[in-house]
Amino acid sequence: MKSMAKHLPHYFVLFGLLLAGILAFVLFSYDQAFQMIVAIAVAISYVIWGLVHHSIHKDLYFSVVLEYLAIAALGLVMVFSLILRT
Fold first, then answer.
1. Which of 21, 42, 50, 79 is 20 to 30 A away from residue 35, measured at CA?
2. Under 8 Å between Cβ of 76 and 40
3. Each residue of 13-54: pLDDT tens digit?
4. Separation of alpha carbons 8 and 5, rounded Å
5. Nearest to 6 by CA among 56, 59, 78
6. Are 64 and 54 in contact (CB under 8 A)?
């Protein structure tokens, strides 16, 4: 439980980033181009958050970087496919 409490402030930041992205995505539902920019910004923020988080905890490895990039890319593919489905 102690290790989870140590990471909690970091996860609040991540949650805030993702929540802001979802809110912007919904508020600008009329503008597909802006939604795509928001999705890219959230993906980049997610990768940067992961790099900073793991760097602080001294467990940043190349495989971790690849994992964050892969998850961000997968998220972008899913969001773009929803935006451009029409």
1. 50
2. yes
3. 999 999 999 999 999 999 999 999 999 999 999 999 999 999
4. 5
5. 56
6. yes
Which token pair is 70?
Answer: 């892969």
Higher pLDDT: 14 or 86? It is: 14
Lowest mean pLDDT among 2-11, 19-28, 71-80: 2-11
Three-class DSSP category at 13 = helix
From CA 75, how far away is CA 56, in angstroms rounded? 25
The dihedral sign for the CA sequence 61, 65, 71, 74: negative
What is the full DSSP assignment across 47-76? HHHHHHHHHHTT---HHHHHHHHHHHHHHH
Of 70, 80, 25, the residue nearest 47 (C-alpha): 70
